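Data's thin. Show one?
=====
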Amino acid sequence: MRPYVLKTWLLSLLLALVADLGFAQSKIKVACVGNSITEGYGLKDGRTYPVQLQALLGDTYEVQNYGVSGRTLLKQGDRPYWKEAKYQQVLQWQPNIVVIKLGTNDSKPQNWQHKTEFKKDYVAFVKSFKKLPSHPKVYICKPMPAYRTNFSINPEIIKNEIIPLIEAVAKKTHVQVIDLYTPMLGHDDLAPDGIHPTSEGDAILAQEVYKAIK
């Protein structure tokens, strides 16, 4: 191969590699923060709502699942998300979009005794993401319904106390609320244990999050 042909070929290859690298770096990073519903408890096919959200958003987005089963938003809860390694991981990942779906486990009696701290803790949680150098857009979700009391989760507390507080947090922090409660009403057939959705239920959650992002 002649020297100038070789140089041209190498230059073309270098430009192609740089273009590929630039495309990879330009992906919009979406962090799904939550509890077992986000993590995908009970799903055998792995089609969690973050997985289905990735399919809806397409290749220009990178969706990561930071759900941890049983975790609370409350710092004084029995298993605070604040203390999890995944919380530090999501902060270090520097996402462009953060979708928070917490509150279900906070309705448990041992956790809701600290309910006066819920709004303050949630505001602090949102701010911990908003102050990141990546300046992500933060969404907070109304939890899907609990169709019956199970795992000590209280359906009425979610509906009547936690959801209004989430709306108040959104107003205070100027973030958008994604309503995952209303679209799941009447879909108790999609949550066999009354709490955790099937992949069909997760498809509804993914669609609502997708509509908010897009």
Remarks:
- The chain has a mean pLDDT of 92.
- The chain has eight helices and five strands.
- Residues 27-213 form a domain with the Rossmann fold fold (CATH 3.40.50.1110).
